[in-house]
Design brief:
GO terms for molecular function: 4 iron, 4 sulfur cluster binding; catalytic activity; metal ion binding. This protein is 30% helix and 22% strand. The chain has helices at residues 53-62, 83-92, 106-112, 130-134, 139-153, 170-183; strands spanning 6-13, 22-27, 69-74, 96-101, 118-122, 156-163, 188-192. A seven-stranded mixed β-sheet has the order 1-2-3-4-5-6-7. Helix 3 (106-112) runs parallel beside helix 5 (139-153).
């Protein structure tokens, strides 16, 4: 099996895995094209890795007792078939595991949920705006399936939405909030997006 393709590593974070001191592994590759993406260098799946996976494991081995957990972010971690084995290897070192995902591969998310302690799920937009925000037809339906799986799993989680009025209106943001609450989401965060950071397609 191919090793995880790593686009970067943050050695220490206090904000990406609630209540834990963690490292963040940035996974290379994402098939969506959100105009406000703040990690565009991670989009190409075939880009040369910034670090080898064995180098990341060696780093984590030196951080046992200092870090509580490891976050797999991106890019989109579930794009990579190597993610489940990477999660198992990290857990075998005694770390808790977290995932940042946009929910674009529901079946792959279902496969790794038993290996996770926390999930941050990006909810990009109300359903009628999803394809425009992601640049990908059918993206909203896939996220909705992933949200259902996450809610049913019992894994601790948070939903997040990056928003600017240039993406969709505040009234639609309010309706998104209401819809998520109705589905059972208890934690939802809105992240501001500067209009000048939105790239034209």
């Amino acid at each position: 099996m191919d090793a995880l393709r790593v686009g970067g590593l943050t050695p220490l974070t206090t904000i990406d895995f609630p209540g834990r001191l963690a490292a963040v592994v940035f996974c290379q590759g994402c098939p969506w094209r959100c105009g406000y993406c703040h990690n565009p260098h991670l989009i190409p799946a075939g880009a040369p890795p910034a670090l080898r996976w064995d180098e990341v494991l060696a780093f984590l081995g030196r951080r046992r007792g200092l870090l509580d957990g490891v976050v797999f972010s991106g890019g989109e971690p579930t794009l990579q078939a190597a993610l489940p084995e990477a999660l198992r290897e990290v857990r075998a070192q005694g770390f808790e595991t977290a995932l940042h995902t946009a929910g674009m591969y529901p079946e792959r998310l279902a496969a790794v949920l038993p290996l996770l302690d926390w999930v941050g799920l990006d909810v990009k937009a109300p359903a009628e705006h999803y394809d425009a925000v992601t640049g990908t037809p059918g993206s909203g339906e896939r996220m909705a399936q992933s949200l259902d799986l996450l809610l049913a799993s019992g894994v601790d989680h948070e939903c997040r939405t990056t928003w600017h009025p240039g993406l969709f209106g505040e009234d639609e943001l309010d309706r998104l909030d209401a819809g998520l609450k109705q589905r059972g989401v208890r934690r939802w965060q809105v992240q501001d997006c500067r209009l000048d950071s939105i790239r034209s397609g």
